[in-house]
Structures are given as structure tokens and as C-alpha cells.
Amino acid sequence: MVLNFNQRSPFTFLMCLICTVSLGYGANVNVILEPTATSPSKLPPLSPMEETDPDPVETTQAVFTLDYPRIQIPFEITLWVLLASFAKIGFHVYHKITVWVPESCLLISIGLIVGGIMHSLHEKPPAVLTSNVFFLYMLPPIVLDSGYFMPTRPLFENFGTVLWFAVVGTLWNSIGIGISLFAICQIEAFGVQDITLQENLLFASIISAVEPVAVLTVFEDISIHEQLYIVVFGECLFNDAVTVVLYNLFNHVAALEVVEAGEVFLDIGRFFVVGLGGMIFGVLFGFVAAFTTRFTGKVREIEPLIIFLYSYLAYLIAELLAISSIMAIVICALTMKYYVEENVSQRSCTTIRHVIKMFGSVSETLIFFFLGVVTITTEHQWNWGYILFTLLFALLWRGLGILVLTQIINPFRTIPFNFKDQFCLAYGGLRGAVSFALAFTLPDSIGCKKLFITGTIVIIIFTVFIQGITLRPLLKLINVRKTNRNQETINSEIHKRLMEHTVAGIEDLCGQWSHYYWKDKFMKFNNRIIRKILIRDNRPESSIVALYKKLELQNAMEILDQMPGDISAAPSLISLHKERKNASKSRKKLLSSDVTNMHELLSKNMYKIRQRTVSYTNKHSLPNDITAREILMRRHTSLRRSLRAGSFHGTNASKMSHNYFSLPMGRSLNTGFPPGRLVHTGDGDTESEIDYPSIRRPRRVSSKAAMPLRPLNTLKEVASSVDTVDEQNEEQRGYRRSHLGSNVSRSGHLTSHLHHGSSRNYSEGDHDFEEQQSRLSPHAWVQEPQDNSDVQHPLMRRPHWLPQTPHDK
Amino acid sequence: MGSTNSTLLKIPNVEVLMQETGFSPAHIIRLHDRFKALDKEGRGHLCPQDFGAIKELAMNPIGDRIIGAFFSPGKETVDFDTFVKILAHFRPVDKDRPKELNSPEPINSRSNKLRFAFQLYDQDKDGKISRDELLQVLRAMLGMQVTEEQLESVADRTIQEADLDRDDAISFEEFRKSLEKINIDNLMSIRFLR
């Protein structure tokens, strides 16, 4: 019973809130509507204590005052947004709902309810949905959200297809629907003969804008093949731009009485200007933003702000020049993301993502919500024939369009779309926010504006509800192609890379080039020139290595998490080691606080890996990591096994150490860790920043150095004095140990790994630590006053390096 | 059409070739033209220098391995037949081909594509990708961007992920298994060779 109560209470609460707000709003509207009607002294009954007196001289001091008009606008906005958010919270209380019914449906429903309430109170909804408000405030966050989280690689691989569907598809739809509707208008029975061709085309362009929200959520839930995902995503994004252009075009044309052929050509030319101009602007702003972030090393707090400002600026300036602002902001986000994420700190990165998601989500929610409200409260002009035919044609033309377009483009694709895919694409054509807003902002000069609005709303509601709800079961039924991206392994990544190179090579051989060639060229150009300019410390990092790091860290985390009992892996390994060494000291050497620190460390570091390898993300949430259990298990077992078997050659132990780039500590832990990094010049000589223990001494000996953990000390510094570690190195050891075993098991024999100076690659972590000068040697752990004579192997000895002055970036 | 036919006739065994590889006559002709363009001295076969003259291929990190794949062990030259047969690996898979039971697997089957890729790793042709071979490939592909230790760690992990029989090397079966979920047809196909 308690459970039921809990589940129901949000709903009831929600309903109460809705009612209150509507009533409150209704009441407030009354206040506003009569500000000047009454004299200032006569405030409505809400301010009971104020004594009103026609004679201004004697007014008594009011004990309570209520000055609503002052805060009205922000207050109402806040209430509406809050209400929408509560709605969203409410939906997720009961999980099953969101699985079967897309959120957009739910939002519209709530909107309908609120609209109903307001209607019954004879109130009008807030007149916020003006053209300006929509286009300048509500649309940019949505588009930025879509653009920023679009997976770039699949997008570029399918760019042709995406553009094809977006541009040609939308044109096809608009013109098809427009002309068919015009034909319908000619039939006298429907009584809509006064709608001209231009107006029909205008209407058609409004309703051909497809909307990705609900579709993408469903697609992700069923893990659909990413080709389909990216085509739908890309199509929706780019066709927003096309629709807006068409809308403006037809709007302009609709006002004209007669259309000349010359005009049409001009308009087509304009179309290209708008599209390409948008792209160019986007790229430009993206570069400028990236360049700016290069210098924000000292002012981390404003980094997210810079991103938002530049994107918004791109949007506004594009609007100024009347070129496609949507394209501008999307391309800006795409360009920016790549470079900016390397420059900004991890926290800023997370902040940026969160805030973008937040704003996008709020905007979307509000729009759907308003859709619901407005449906009830506007005056509709209903015309059975026209509207039903609109619906019919919309569905028909979309289906036809997809069919025809796919047939044309399939020969150009490496993976052609089969019929199931085409069905997905066609059925997934839901209409939404953009259509709604465009309909609302139709100029009043259009005679049938109300009819158009009604028609748009009908289509939106139909597609969102009926298609949205049935999409998921249908897709499952027809068993559409699924993705295989969920299993990220190093193997697949490497082999894929090899295959790409192979195909590129073969293409060169055959003398014909496809996108691999261009991609290759671009990457070279990118690495050589662009990155130098835009990125603060240019450390080209291969995606293979990034993936490797990510996977390793996940495994480490899991090992720590999974160990039974209160002992985490590290101490148990250590204890085993100790056993082997015939030390009869007690088992738990690691203080529990060390363990928690390690845990903390690991979890912090988890996020430090740039998510370059995450392909697509959920529309309504942020990216998650996927773990590879098998690898984990294997690591785990090999680890334990090796420790028992024990030879601590640990040949690679030392190597492994550096590979835990991320030992950037949270502030609670130590001190500077050497932000050593690998700096590559363009000609390929590798300068590594190596911190030699001989150069510096570690800053302090921490009390926690009760880590008598003997390092698998394979490295003997040439001239180092073995210094004790501080927590940092303790952590390092902790990591190393967990991987030590795995290394050991693998390297059954010594190979000459210690050939050259090992350079490590630490992630930049928080650059705040850069300031901490003490560059502790990562090898500091090696030093333990006790020596390990048993591991004196000539090959293990580190060769003599020339100390280089570690440079600051 | 006349010129096409005559060109076709000049190529020895063209019928057999077309059947084995599945290339259409137009493709064969195009490839023949390319072959002749590469074979600057008109000898009728290609030698490694001819391949090396392709500038872009020379810059490919695994360019030399690709070239090596054309030359079967012991042979110094590549004739047109071999040339076409190797390239046939990269044809997109024919989905509608009827499955004849007794015919040999087509050259562009998934398995053969995988075998081709495997060969690129396995230079000593012992049927396994050893750690060193893997390292060499990694170094070639990533060499400029990563440190030696990272390469080694990646190689270690790779072997560990794929190596099921714990022999510290990746056999062809293990290779195949590690890629079972990946769409090889897409990755190892060149569209215009369809």
C-alpha cells in the first residue's frame, strides 16, 4: 500500500499543481487585464490589507502588499517551465509508460489537459508563441542539442544520403502535397476554392518538416542499425533548414499575385546561397570558438559560456543575413565539438553537455506542451475534406518519396537500404515542433490561416500519437536491422582501421577514389595544420588508444567494484604478493581510506577519457559507458592466476604504469602529478617529456606511505634515489597492480621492452595542476628503500637517457 | 561494343576470369586498362616497383603489406589474372546470388575477405598473428601518435581479448570470431567494383 501511495502521489501532486497553476494563472490574468481600468489604489481583492481611498492624501500604510505585475513575466515563465518539468518527472515514475508511449505524446496530453482546464476557465494561453520568441529563443537550444550530440563519423560517411533525403525529400514532399491539395481545392464540394497554389505550397512546406524526437528514442531503444539512425537524425536536422527556407520562399511568393519564372530561378539560387552560406558560417564560428578556447586555460569557469555564446551568435548572425540559421548552428556545433573538447577541462566538458541537454530538453518540452494547450484554446476552422486529405497526402507522399528516393540512391551506397529500412524511414516521419511553430507564425494575410493551423495540429497529433505509439511494436515485428556497435573491443577497432587503410590503398591502386581518400586527406590536413592552431596542447591521440584507455579503465573500475568483501583488488593482490615473498605481515595493508580514495580516483578518471568513441547517444540522456564483462572476467582471472603463479617479471609493469594516464587526482589527493605529455611535432620526431626522478624529489612523504607495497619493481632508476611516495604514487601502484598480473601472464618471456625511454602520456586532467610545479616522477613508486635483488635483470635496467628539460606544453 | 569485345578477346582466359571473380566485362576492361597504365614498360606483368610508383599507395601506412599481398610467395611478378583475382576480394557481396552447393566459395565472400585481412597481418604466413606482427602493424598505423608502451599495451590487450586458446597469438579462427559482429562486407568492399 505504501508503494501505491508513493507511485500515485506524484500524479496527484501533478494534477493539483496543474489546477493551481491554471487557476492561479487565470486569476492573475484578471489582475493584469485590469491594471489601468481601475485606479492604482484599487487593487483587486488579493491585497486585502491595502486600504483604498479615493483621496490620495490619506492612504494608510499597507502591511502586506502584492505587486504581481512586477514579477509577472519571469514568474509565469518559471511556472510554465516548472510545470513541464513536473510532467516529465511524473512520466518516469511509472517506467512502462515511457517505453510504450513516447514522451512527446505524454507532453502533448498534459498540454491538452491544461488547455482544457484553461479553456473551461475561459482563459487564453500566454501569447508567447510569437515568431520571434520561437525562432530566437526556443528553436536554437533544440537544434544545438541535436547538432552537438550528432555522431560525426556516421554522419560524414552517410552525408550524401542524408542531404539527399533532407533536401530532395523535403522538396518532393512539399511540392507533391502542395499540388495534390491544390487539386483537391479545385473540387467544389469542399468549399475551399479560395486557397491559391502558393498558399497550398506554403502549407505543404510547413507540414513536411519531420521531427526526430520520438523516433530517435524508439530507434535507440531497439538498438537499430546506425545507418538508419543517422539518416533519420540527419534528415530531420537538415530538413528543418530546408523547410524554413521553403517556408520563407513560399511566404514571399504567396504574397505575390503573379509568379514569374525569373522569380523562381532567383529563389532557387537563393536556396543554395542560404544553405551553403549557413554551412560556411557555421564552420567559421566553429573555428573561432575553438580558437578562443585555446586561451581559456586560466579561466575555466567561462568555457561553457563561450561555447553557448558562439553558437548562439552564429545563429543570430545567420538570421541577420537571412541565411539558414539552423544549418549554421548545427555545423558550428559539429566543428566546435571536436576541437573544443580537447581544449577545455573535463568539468567544462561535462557542463557543456549537461547544459545543452538541459536547454534542449526544456525547449522541446515547452513546445509540445504548448501544442497541447493551444490545441484546445485556439479557434479552429475545420474543413473535413481538406484536412483529411492533407493527412492522407502527407502519409502518401512521404511513403512514395522514400521509396523513389531510395531506389535512386541505393546504387551509390555501400549498404543499400532494403524494404524494411525504407518502411522504418517512411513510418518514422513524425511531425513536431518546427511544423507547429511555423504554422503559428503564419502571417495573418493568409486567408485560411486558421485552417492551416488546424490542419497542422491534426497532422502533428496524428503522427505523434498514432505513429509514435505504434512505431516501436512495428519495428520489433518486422525485425529491422540492429546495430552491432554495442560491443566495443580493441580488436574490432584495430581491424577496422586496418581494413580502412587497406581499402584506401586498393582504391589508390585502382585509381578511383571514394570517401576514404578524402577522409584521409582531410585528416592529414587536420593534423598538420588545423589542430596546431586551434588546440592548446596538441597531442594527437589515436582513437584506438583512446578506446584502449577507456576499456582498461572500465575494467579496473569493475575489478575494484566486483571484488567480494570489503577488500578491493589491490590489497588482495598485494597480500598475495607478500605471501609469496614470504613476508608474514598482516594482510590488509591498504587502509580502507586508501581504497576509497582509489575508488574515487577511478570514478573520477572514468570521466576524464574523452568520449570520442561513443557513437550515438540517447536523445533524452547523456552518454553511458558500456562495459565488457568478458574482458573483465578474463582480466580478473588472469590477474589472480598470475599472482599465484607469480613470476613478477612485470616486464610491462612499468609500462602499464604510464599508461594510466589518468592519475589526475582530485584535489583531495595530492599534489602535482606530472602532466607530462607527449608532444609531437609535425615531422614525427617524438619528444617526450620525461620526468626523471633524478631531477626532482617528490614533495613529501606522506603518512600514508605505509604502503609497503612493494612494487614490482622492475625499473631501476639509473641515478635515482628511491623516494617514497605520496598518495599519488600509491594510487599508481594500485592501478598497476591490478594490471600487473595480466601482463605477467601474457609475457611469458622477457622481451626487450625497455629499449627506449618510456614516455608517458598523462591526460591533461585538470590543468589547474599544471601550476603545481612539482613534477613528481611517475617512477617514484619504484623507489622503495628495500631493494629487490631478485628482479635484477639486465634487461630491466633502464637505459641511460638524457635528461630533457620538461617543457611546459 | 565492337571495341569492347575486341579488348576482351585480347585478355587470355577472360571467360574463366569473369566467372571466378564475378566481375562484369566492363569492370574487367577497366581493370585491364588500369593494369596497362601501371605496367609502364608494357611487359605484361607488374613488379613491385610498378606498385611503388603509385604515390598515394606509398604513403599508406600499410602500403607495403598491401603490395606484398599481390605477390604470392616466391613470385616476383603479378600478371593480370592474379591482379584481378586479388581485387575481386573487394567486390561487394552479391546478396542475390543463388547458393550453389558444390561451387567453391566466391572470392569476395566474407570469409575470404577476412582471410585477406588476416594475411596482411601475418607476414610470415604461419597462420597466426603473433604479438610482434601485431605490434608491427600497430606501429605502422599509429606510430606517429603514440608511444611505444602504449602500442605494447594495446597489443597486449588485443591479444588478450581475442586469444581464446591462450597461445599468445591470434589464429585465423580467433580473428574471425573477434569480428563476428562487424559488418565486414561493408568495410572491405569498394563500391565501384560491384
From TrEMBL, chain A:
The keyword rRNA processing does not apply. It is a multi-pass membrane protein. Residues 82-476 form the Cation/H+ exchanger transmembrane domain. GO terms for biological process: regulation of intracellular pH; sodium ion import across plasma membrane. Residues 681-708, 720-809 are annotated as: Disordered. The chain crosses the membrane at residues 12-33, 77-94, 100-121, 133-150, 162-185, 197-216, 228-250, 271-292, 312-334, 355-378, 384-410, 422-440, 452-475. It comes from Carassius auratus (Goldfish). It is found in: Cell membrane. Its main location: membrane. Residues 569-671 form the Sodium/hydrogen exchanger regulatory region domain. The keyword Secreted does not apply. This is Sodium/hydrogen exchanger. GO terms for molecular function: potassium:proton antiporter activity; sodium:proton antiporter activity. Belongs to the monovalent cation:proton antiporter 1 (CPA1) transporter (TC 2.A.36) family.
Automatic annotation (TrEMBL), chain B:
It is found in: Cell membrane; Cytoplasm; Nucleus. Keywords: Calcium, Cell membrane, Cytoplasm, Lipoprotein, Membrane, Metal-binding, Myristate, Nucleus, Phosphoprotein, Protein transport, Repeat, Transport. CDD domains: EFh. Belongs to the calcineurin regulatory subunit family. CHP subfamily. GO terms for molecular function: calcium ion binding. It comes from Carassius auratus. Gene3D superfamilies: EF-hand. This is Calcineurin B homologous protein 1-like. It comes from the Eukaryota. The gene is LOC113115139.
